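[audit] Reproducing an earlier prediction to check determinism. Same input, same settings, fresh worker. If the tokens differ from the archived copy the diff job will pick it up downstream; this log only records the rerun itself.
[audit] input (265 residues):
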Amino acid sequence: MANLTNLYDVSKCTACRGCQVACKDWNQLPAVIEPFKGNYQTHENTNGETYTIIKFFESEDPVDGVSWNFFKRQCMHCLDANCVKVCPKGAYSKTSWGATIHDPDKCIGCQYCSTACPFDIPKYLKRVDKITKCTLCVDRVEEGLTPACARTCPTGALTFGDRDELLQKAEDRAKYLQANGFPNATIYGKLELGGLNKLYVLTDTPDKFDLPVDPKVPAVTFWQNYVQPYASWLIPVFLVASGTSFITSRLIANKEKGHEEGGHE
């Protein structure tokens, strides 16, 4: 089955935040009210009960004056997802069409995936002691529907479909923007980390949208690469070593105690 994904074109986004509302509504997520900090952005970041947000970036140019950049932030659904690799309980998996999904029934709230994510996406929800994140509306897609955010977008900034087809659409759009006032227009998600299952058309360089220009996978795969494959025999070895250490310590302590008592006679 072909990879299915969202394409987000920042040049078409009006920051109406309809996608935020649709995400909350479909996933039945409660409102999270954050203190007003003098800008139009409703949340500093995604959180355990907010899977997607629109970020606002204000800049001022001596020629063009004040300008705004908008950016939809949510899980990138990496093609080679690090969260899948590092979860010690196998709570993450990939669908046949490319979504990275999380099973709360297997989650133990260890937050290892949060540390391992290059984009700081999985968030800890304290009231249930679990991790949560965007699902790419897997329940809707597997019933033949479009993700709620893309279904709601009134300007066509969000479109859903075959990744290869959307990538071609993104390349055409980036070329158009480069020739029409946005010389730095680019595509994000095509090659980063081997490819993301979220594609972006950006009107400027990634750093202008608080995106890592060259994202790196955090080096936190010790459990997955070195401990988990050998856990079946490492645990017994550890228990034997602990028992041996305890007995040895007791013997040494008793021997020293005997020497001390003998020295006092």
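[audit] rerun output stored. Observation attached for the diff report: Strands lie at 4-9, 53-61, 65-73, 92-94, 100-102, 123-125, 130-132, 158-162, 186-188, 198-202.
[audit] end
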